[in-house]
Amino acid sequence: MAYKEKTMPHSERLKERIQKLKAENNAVILAHNYQIEEVQEIADFTGDSLELARKAANYDADVIVFCGVDFMAETAAILSPEKTVLLPAEQANCPMADMITAGELRVLKQRFPDAAVVCYVNTTAEVKAESDICCTSSNAVKVVQSLDADQIIFVPDRNLGNYVSLFTDKNIMPWEGFCFVHDRITPDDVNKARELHPDAEILVHPECRAEVVDMAEKVASTSGMIEYVCQSRKQEFIIGTEIGILHRIKKDCPDKICYPLSSHAICTNMKMTDLTKICNSLQKMSPRITIPGEIGDRARLAIQRMLDV
Which one of 2, 223, 240, 246 counts the least CB within 10 Å of its CB? Predict the structure, then answer.
């Protein structure tokens, strides 16, 4: 046994150690679709924000190891305050979530007192606490349509807000935030991808710019893209979102061929988590994400309203 451990590759030893610590601590590992391959492979569940929010709320575990960025771990802590929520990559923040503060949102609410506030799940706990309801890219249209208000303050993603406005008569007032990964994808990228792969169907995320969305055959969340590719009769696809999703698609739909719409669609924050950080996090039970009670209670209402929709 000693000889086996000595010659075993470092990554394999880490995986064994993680599995042992996970069992000892009754932990579950959740990973977003944009995580690096080895993290997706070690995870118990991989998915988009909505899928992982549901898993965090319903899975029977004492410890949630969230392989993603800060707002995702915060969402898990909001939904499961009795559980220990760990974010192995402590510095993994979401730049778009930081583009609006609770104070800025309060000013908006004062200016438009009759408007309902819809916040993208890519927001801080404090912003969620100031919102009427949360949404994800997969349910944003349905969430907005479920509201009685005619005016909607939509934070923080202007691109997703503009996309939602195409499907409703409500007055959508989007905040000027954006995802730097999706917003950098241009119509020129689409034209070049079409030239290289003329038989491929183009799928893009609704966080992309309106002019890019208009050029796509399909607009969907990350999990929506995976489902569409797996069920489609077509064989080739150009995927307009963070390139980490390509590993998941290849795993779930091995017979399909997928190309990245842009090789620059990389979220460096999502790539901060690795096996060493996961192992250290389970050993030390840190970094731990906690949400103050009153903020957590108010934010939970907004998230639960979304889950109910």
Answer: 2
- Using left for φ > 0, alpha for ψ between -120 and 50, and beta otherwise, residue 7 falls in alpha
**Quick one: three-class SS letters along 158-222?**
HHHHHHHHCCCCCEEEECCECCHHHHCCCHHHHHHHHHHCCCCEEEECCCCCHHHHCCCCEECCH
* Dihedral Cα 57, 58, 64, 70, nearest 10 deg: -30
One CATH from 3.30.420.40, 3.90.550.10, 3.40.50.10800, 3.40.50.2300 for 97-178: 3.40.50.10800
Residue 216 has φ and ψ, to the nearest 5°, of: -90, 155
pLDDT, tens only, 167-180: 999 999 999 999 99
Backbone dihedral angles phi then psi of residue 177, each to the nearest 5 degrees: -95, 170
Nearest of 173, 171, 130, 177 to residue 150 by alpha carbon:
171
- Give pTM, 2 decimals: 0.91
